[in-house]
Design a protein that fits this description.
This protein has 329 residues and is an alpha/beta fold. It is built from 11 helices and 9 strands. It has a domain of 218 residues: Rossmann fold (3-Layer(aba) Sandwich). It is globular and about 55 Å long.
Length: 329
């Protein structure tokens, strides 16, 4: 059995602050891309990677349907104003990933605007409610899983049948470094992102040979609207918590919703640019995982071990060819 030390994890991450990881190795994510002729549906576009991505992909020539909940809202107005000013093929539609009917209606609206099922689905909507796991009541736990996991499943189910029937498509799931690494005090954020990792691998194996690629994005901490939303949701949780669930955790509990969280460095535009590179790659050559970290990528050895173990484990059975195709082995 191979043992991986904390030092080796950190060293591997520090070696490459911005990389795309796939079965063929690692390569820099750089350079402009041409997404003309590509249609993209994105969830969670009111801020962060969703908002920036909608503009970035449209400026690269894509037809983009940027979705968010609770329309009308100022963020939607700003996106539409930018689209009009720059003559972008960027539309705004309503999708609340917590609601099955909203997802179905939003996907149908996207199909109407595009004229077909989108070429790419970017599952981006997500939340974080932090603090000790014990402090996460069932309402917070349910909201985390409904948004970060079940929301992805709803949009995948709404779009995937048409992608498979057409024999072409790309599903991009936003995970996190926290989908591989445990950071104590993040509540159910790590567990939900671990679920996204497993969901992405499962999809990739099941879709091998059907023309639909899967990419799981693992960004580190970047300054996005997630942080402000995180503080709001976490403060609400703390305000309604029984002190018995907060005692004994020191600063982990004391800092919940305090506003004392340091905004991370880095440029979130790096993340959307790397996603654009993955979308622009030839079908079948798109990376299974993107690693993007201002402070490095300590999850890299875990990705490598997971790949090797799955190739060995699945390689001996019915899904061996699928695993080799996904990992380009």
């Amino acid at each position: 059995m191979t043992m991986i030390s904390r030092r080796s994890l950190l060293a591997a991450g520090a070696a490459a602050p911005l990389v795309i990881s796939d079965a063929a190795g690692e390569r820099p994510a750089s350079g402009p891309v041409d997404l003309a002729g590509t249609s993209i549906l994105i969830t969670g576009c009111s801020s962060g990677f969703g908002y920036l991505g909608a503009l970035h992909y449209a400026r690269a020539g894509a037809t983009v349907v940027a979705t968010m909940r609770n329309l009308p809202r100022p963020e939607a107005d700003r996106l539409q104003a930018n689209a009009a000013k720059e003559s972008l093929r960027l539309y705004v539609a309503e999708i609340d990933v917590l609601d099955e009917a909203s997802v179905s209606q939003g996907v149908e609206e996207a199909r109407r605007l595009i004229g077909d099922v989108p070429d790419v689905l970017v599952n981006n909507a997500g939340i974080a409610i932090v603090g000790p796991l014990e402090a996460q009541d069932i309402a917070a736990t349910r909201l985390a899983y409904e948004t970060n996991v079940f929301g992805y499943q709803r949009t995948i189910r709404a779009i995937l049948p048409a992608m498979r029937k057409r024999g072409r498509g790309h599903i991009v799931n936003m995970s996190s470094q926290s989908g591989r690494l445990i950071w104590p005090g993040l509540g159910h954020y790590c567990p939900t992102k671990f679920a996204v990792e497993a969901m992405s691998d499962t999809l990739a194996y099941e879709l091998a040979g059907q023309g639909v690629d899967v990419t799981c994005v693992q960004p580190g901490s970047y300054p996005t609207g997630l942080w402000d939303n995180r503080e709001r949701l976490t403060k609400a949780l703390k305000d309604r918590s029984d002190p018995a669930h907060l005692e004994g955790y020191g600063a982990m509990s004391a800092d919940m919703g305090s506003g004392r969280v340091t905004t991370p460095p880095g440029d979130p535009q790096e993340v959307v640019a790397a996603i654009a590179q993955a979308i622009a790659a030839p079908p079948g050559d798109r990376p299974l995982r993107l690693m993007l970290g201002h402070w490095g990528n300590p999850q890299a050895p875990i990705n490598n071990v997971s790949r090797d173990v799955h190739l060995d484990f699945l390689g001996k059975g019915h899904f061996g060819e699928a695993a080799r195709q996904v990992h380009k082995a």
